[in-house]
Design goal:
Pfam families: DDE_3. 42% of the residues lie in helices and 10% in strands. It has 263 residues and is mainly α. The protein folds into 2 domains: 3-42; 59-256, Ribonuclease H-like superfamily/Ribonuclease H (Nucleotidyltransferase, domain 5, 2-Layer Sandwich). Helix 4 (59-72) crosses helix 11 (246-255). The chain is globular, with a radius of gyration of 20 Å. The protein starts with a helix and ends in an 8-residue tail after the last helix.
Length: 263
Amino acid sequence: MTSRQERDVVRRLSRGGISLRQLAKEDNIPVTKSILSWIVKRTNNLRYKKRKQQPMLKAIYKQKRVDWAKYHQTWKDKWHRVILLHCVALRSIGLTMRKEEKIFSKRQQGGGSLMVWGGFGYGDKLNLAFPSGRIKATNYQEILETHLLPFAEIIGGPSWIFQQDNTPIQVSKSSWEWFLDNGVHVMEWPALSPDLNPQEDVWGILSRAEYANGRQCQSVAKLKPTIVEAWDNIDATVLQGLVNVMPHRVFQVTYKHGGYIGY
């Protein structure tokens, strides 16, 4: 391997989002995974971290996923009424989004973090929310009050349906009371099921767009406006495609007997 090829390898790995095994399979990389590992070890600003595995689903959770899939197997266009919400933690000098990066810059440890709430449906996407500090149930309800309610009918129609995860602030007693008071129809969502939520794919799209060509934000102040710009630039047809694939995700859950479906 030439010095130029080695620099290219380091540059590729510093962006994150690719494993040594994947990189070694590329035609322009004439070395094995073990050689790439050696390059990482002798490079000061890179370190290797093994990718975390998904938590193993117990039989009870698999059955709940199957029951959920059977209930929703007849949903086709009805998914056009659903607004999907999700949160993610972003870091300046590198993003932690859909999947944990296998290799990343040590300088990440010096960057700040940014909590982002985002959601979308077939009709459009919500404005991003950037809450600060620890989020309580009341803060979550304020986010919904400002970012969801004014636009929900525009995105999902008059009979819109709301999807959320099962975090404590989302399923708290006060949150459920808020949903009832505001007439929000919350759909049931199985636990331990990030693979079912296409919002995870949106975070991945955002990550690739924002950090293309090795670009990195050096501070939270610079990260926020660039995230908003990348979010606004996601085309509506991409979101519609993600919604339209939901029936296939539902089918895959049943086909795999409740196991993870690989999305």
